[in-house]
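Q: My labmate handed me this sequence with no annotations at all. I'd like to see what the chain might look like in three dimensions before we decide whether it's worth expressing. Could you predict it?
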Amino acid sequence: MVPLGTTGESVTLTKDEKIAVLDFVVETVDKRVPVVVGVGGNNTQDVLKCLSEYDFTGIDAVLSVTPYYNKPSQKGLYQHYKMIANESQVPVILYNVPGRTGCNMQAETTLNLANDFENIIGIKEASGNMEQIMNIIKDKPEGFLVISGDDLLTLPLIAAGAEGVISVVANAFPKEFSEMVRLSLKGNLEKARELHYLLCEFTQLLFAEGSPAGIKSVLNMMEICDDHLRLPLVNISKSHANKLATSIDKIHQLV
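A: Here is what I predict for the chain of 255 residues:
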């Protein structure tokens, strides 16, 4: 479970709201599965302050996105994560998503961090750059996790040696998507491909008008949560919601 991630709109939550969300998740999970909390930002000192103030009881790791907007150099990224690694009470998972941050952490920087800090245990890679991600997989130290941050690329990334995914689609179809991942990890790519392509159209539609707007609309259709977003995010269009509903029906007919 990854509370306070991007899909949970963590950037528009207040400090008290973040603590409330985290406390609720930790209590509900009750140690049944690992809990990874999102702690990131573009002000290193603010991130360090959050790390010093959180109660990490029941938290297994932090997921920390690269700084956004101010576009640090590779040296700046290294120093940012060095400070986080030195401050964090739990292991750290890096998060590279240049499409959202405007900043790409190159494979060399990721590998330097992986080799230099024992408590930096993995990276959620959502650059979409297969060559970059494969270079990380090829040269990473033993035990360092390379995790897909892109639902559509999860199958090929696992085939290339990635260990799993932090998923948006799995909020709506946890059974089917998790089974696709398990089959991929076992090397059963033929059956994994069936599930991959079953969910492919739905996944594309899910992000077409922005995330997390798409998944929140879907979860509302499934009566799991209300379709609320905080500005500057807005709800998807009615016509696009209809396309998602049709795609959901297709999946339900085939599973």
